[in-house]
Amino acid sequence: MPSFAPDEPGNIFLIDLNEQNPRAQTLKISDGFDKASFNPHGISTFIDKDHIVYLYVVNHPHMKSTVEIFKFEEQERSLVHLKTIKHELLKSVNDIVVLGPEQFYATSDHYFTNFFLSLLEMLLDLHWTYVLFHSPQEVKVVAQGFSYANGITISLDNTYVYVADIAAKNIHVMKRDDNWDLTQQKVIQLDTLVDNLTVDPATGDVLAGCHPNAMKLLIYNPEDPPGSEVLRIQNVLSKNPSVSTVYANNGSVLQGSTVASVYHGKLLIGTLFHRVLYCEL
Q: In the prediction, which pLDDT does 1 show?
């Protein structure tokens, strides 16, 4: 897969969808944080009782995995780095969903961190990836047996956790137990590689950023690029959820969609290495 800026460190961008013509702007990160090795992956926010916004970011500095906690300064449009979280179970972390101060679920998309062993793991389809729970009191695996645990999000009432298994082309619906363990309720099978998940704040529907063609994604050809696909899953908890296509493109406009979010009839789609697309529904 290509990188169009291989020598540039990672950044966090802000897009205000309340603006008439939204534009992405880079958030300045406070001094004292190693910005040169910043390699962000999954992100999630937590808003406390004082309405302070905290951003949790999966980071891969020097091919490791950490979770970075930032405080968002709205007036300055900047991030103040507060803490780095490390743990032996936080390996090959992909995505994260935050529930409280330093309380979060995170997916681990590989059991092995060695490149060749992780490649063998995928070829053998070992189903050794997992979801972990982290809090200041404990860190533990709460769900396992995934082929490639990828995106993760939570229902509007914080009762159900949704996990995308990109290699198995499905979404696991799991109920959160009182001890933070996850109990599987159902699996929604799809005909596409499901990357990251978000929840529509107005309806509770699940939005999935997907890859319709795995080979085009892995073997990049600018003359025949990978396409993009966004699905909406309605009535997730019902016996027969409704799956519809929100956006689809053959790669001529948008390549390698990974995530989509909706807000007041506006759609924002992110990609693995290409660009961000904004449109109105």
A: 53
Q: Considering the candidates 41, 60, 87, 127, report the single residue annotated as catalytic.
A: 41
Could you give the CA distance from residue 53 to residue 48 in angstroms, rounded to a whole number? Answer: 7
Distance CA 107, CA 96 (A): 7
Long-range contacts of 38-43 (CB under 8 A, 24+ apart): 38/9, 38/10, 38/11, 39/9, 39/10, 40/10, 40/11, 40/12, 40/68, 41/93, 41/94, 41/95, 42/93, 42/94, 42/95, 42/96, 42/106, 42/107, 42/151, 42/152, 42/196, 43/12, 43/96
Instruction: Provide the whole-model pTM.
Output: 0.95
Q: Does the annotation count 41 as an active-site position?
A: yes
pLDDT value of position 201: 96
Strand, coil or helix: what is 47? strand
pLDDT recorded at residue 114: 87
Tokens of residue 81, six digits: 């780095």
Amino acid identity at 230: V
Is residue 215 helix, strand or coil? Answer: helix
d(CA 70, CA 19): 24
CB neighbourhood size of 224 (10 A): 12
- 71 vs 195: CA distance, rounded Å: 27
Q: Which tokens go with 104?
A: 């979060």
User: Can you give the pLDDT at residue 123?
Assistant: 85
pLDDT, mean of each 10-residue run, the chain (281 residues): 69 94 94 94 96 97 96 96 97 97 97 87 90 97 97 98 97 97 98 97 97 92 96 96 97 97 96 94 87
Q: How far apart are CA 237 and CA 234, in angstroms?
A: 9
Query: How many Å apart are CA 224 and CA 240, to the nearest integer?
Result: 35
Residue 141 β-bridge partners: 132
Residue count (the chain): 281
